[in-house]
Amino acid sequence: MYELFLKGGIIMYPIAFCSILALGIFLERLWNLREKKIIPKDFLIEVEDLINRRKIHEAMIVCRRDKSSMSSIIFEGIRNFNQSREALKDAVEGVGRQEAAKLERYVGIVGTVASIAPLLGLLGTVTGMIKAFNVISMQGVGNPGSLAEGISEALITTAAGLIVAIPAYVMYRYLISKVDRIIMTMEKYSMHMVDLLEEKKQASSGMEGTLL
Question: In whole angstroms, what is the distance from residue 147 CA to residue 152 CA?
Fold first, then answer.
C-alpha cells in the first residue's frame, strides 16, 4: 500500500490530507451532533414542568446550567416572557438560527473534500501523463517499461481521488440530513415552548385581572 502511495507521486499527499480531514470532521460531527447532547429530553421535561408551575426564574436557572443548544433557545424565550408573542417568537428564532449555524459548522468542508478530491486525482493523471510523454520524447516508444512510472502515477492518483471523494460525499450527505433532522426537532420544541410561555403569560394576566 505504501509503495502504491509513493508511486502516485506528490499529488498523493494532498489527497491523503483531504481523506484525513474529511474523516476527522465526520467523526467530530458525529460526536457533537448526538441528539441527546443538543436536545436533552430530561432538561426539556424539567423546564416545561417549571414553566407549567409558573416558576419562571427557576426555569431560567436550569437553562443557564445546561449547555445544550436547546437550552440557549429556551432561555431566550423565557427572558422575553413578558414581550408580545411576535417579539417572543422572533427572539427564539434568532437564537435558533445561531444554534443551527453551530450545528452546520465544518460540514461544508466535507462537501468541499468530496468536490476537490477527484480534481486532485485528475491533476495527478495529467502530471503522470506528462511524465510518460517526456519519456517518449527522450527515449521513444521502444521500451514500454520506461513509461510505467508516468502511467502508474496517472492511474493511481485517479483511483485515489475517487476513493476519497465517494466516501466523503456519502459522509457529507449523511451529516446534512442529520443536521436538518435535528434543526426540525429544535424548531418543533421551540414553537412548543413559545406556545407554552404565551399560555402561561395569558393565564397570569387573567388571574391579575380577576384579582383587580
Answer: 9
The residue segments making up the domain with residue 169 are: 2-201
Domain count, the chain: 1
Note whether residue 212 is domain-resident: no
> 115: helix, coil or strand?
helix
Handedness of CA 24, 25, 30, 33 (dihedral sign): positive
Residue pair 99/183 in contact by the 8 Å Cβ criterion: no
- 104 DSSP assignment: T
Tell whether 142 is covered by a domain: yes
In sequence order, the 6+-apart residues with CB closer than 8 A to the CB of 54 are: 200, 204
pTM of the full structure: 0.84
- 102 and 122 Cβ atoms separated by less than 8 Å: no
Q: What confidence tens digit (pLDDT) does each residue in 136-157 have?
A: 677 665 566 656 667 788 888 9
